[in-house]
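User: Hi! I'm working on a homework problem where we have to compare a predicted structure to a textbook description. Could you give me the structure for the chain below?
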Amino acid sequence: MATREDVDPMKVVPAAEGAAAVGDAVPRKQYTTVVVERQIAAPRGVAFGVLCGMISEATGGYAVDGDPAPHGMGARLEFSVGDLDLVEEVISFEPPWRRVYELTGAPVALYQGTTLFTDQGSTCLMAWSLLIDPLPDGSSDGFIAAARTFLDRFADTLKARAEAEAGA
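Assistant: Happy to help. Predicted structure tokens:
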């Protein structure tokens, strides 16, 4: 807990002065976000397991197993899409709730994906979001459009497989 003695010597900088200094030095980023949601008639544990299996299947398996093996933290997938050699690394793994990864090798400054499953009684809601920092010259546009299309198809397949596995 701060005491009066801790607080008194603090220097107060007017908001306008601080904002101008920060605003002038660093331009504000313009991120692109993509969010795909699917209501899945299956428990989240089933849907999360299907997600992990489909990721392995789509990429040919893990180049490096994560902790816990194979899908967990630090897991690396190496695969090609067209002329791009991509690497996906799991940076957070909380089954059967959330999986977060970063993708490198794409024509973007940043690509981070999060797949989240929320219980809704005997069903679940899957929300898959991408946070992308596109390159300023427009060279990311085609890749982002392809990622959006891929995510929609992948989510539809995941929903169908999870519901079939759950007997829905």
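For your comparison, note the following. The radius of gyration is 21 Å. The helical segments are 4-7, 15-25, 44-59, 141-166. Good luck with the assignment!
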